[in-house]
Amino acid sequence: MKFMIKKLMLLLMFGFIFLYALTATAPLADSFPETSIGETVIHRGYDETASKNLVAAILLDYRLFDSIFEAGILLISAAGVLYMSRSSGFSKPFPRAKEAAVPKDSDSILAVSRILYPFMLLFGFYIIVFGDLSPGGGFQGGVILATARLISVYIPEKASENTDPLNRLEKILFLCLLILGFISLFTRGTPFTNFFSGSVDPEFRRLFLVLLNLLIGLKVSSGLTIIFIRFIKEGK
């Protein structure tokens, strides 16, 4: 019963966000010239969003509600995989690497994994933090972090036992994304945009983009890690 209530509340929350986003952003196209939306973004993107990467300007400002909705889809997908794997009898914690089906003579895999793991973590966070300045961002960096987590399966001292903490973390991060997206409703009268006004220095407004990328990156990493681990568990 409690699980059904949670699903209903989640469905209502997504429905409210979706309908509000549709009504709040309906006049968006009218604010651009009919034949030069791309040119308008190119010329006004940095001044309005403080992002030098115009793709990030679109994902984290002009179409922020889309990005949050996509993060919600991943949350639902991870929850579905977790629920189905548990319903299929795979509710036990994920085994440590020494118990996993790794060949005994795979010392080279273990050695390479230990070498790559910290560099992949560092590269993933770099892609996330500087996603508004160069190609990358929370979604791309989150995938790299999840891949690093998958590599850590082969490192005994880094292998975790279950996905429940990640499941809770993903929900908390998504809630933080929603809160961050709605702050601008109270500071600027418009939701899903930078809560700093346009008069604030662009380098300072960039903090909003970095924070968004961090939340998205950690959330994507958590969701994909859950899916990876449960698929590996079910395949054994």
TrEMBL record:
User: Which residue ranges traverse the bilayer?
Assistant: 68-88, 109-131, 137-156, 168-187, 207-232
What cellular-component terms does GO give this entry? plasma membrane
User: In which compartments does the protein localize?
Assistant: Cell membrane
* Matches recorded under Pfam families: MnhB (PF04039)
What keywords were assigned to this record? Cell membrane, Membrane, Transmembrane, Transmembrane helix
UniProt KW Thylakoid keyword? no
Q: Which InterPro entries does the entry link to?
A: CPA3_antiporter_subunitB, MnhB
The membrane topology term of the UniProt record is: Multi-pass membrane protein
Domain named Na+/H+ antiporter MnhB subunit-related protein: which ranges?
Answer: 112-225
Q: What coarse category fits the chief subcellular location reported for this protein?
A: membrane
Tell me which domain of life the UniProt entry assigns to the organism this sequence originates from.
Answer: Bacteria
Q: Which PANTHER family match?
A: NA(+)/H(+) ANTIPORTER SUBUNIT B, NA(+)_H(+) ANTIPORTER SUBUNIT B
Query: So what family is this one in?
Result: Belongs to the CPA3 antiporters (TC 2.A.63) subunit B family.
Protein name from the UniProt record: Na+/H+ antiporter MnhB subunit-related protein domain-containing protein
Species this protein is from = Isachenkonia alkalipeptolytica
Task: Recall the taxonomic lineage recorded for the source organism.
Answer: Bacteria, Bacillati, Bacillota, Clostridia, Eubacteriales
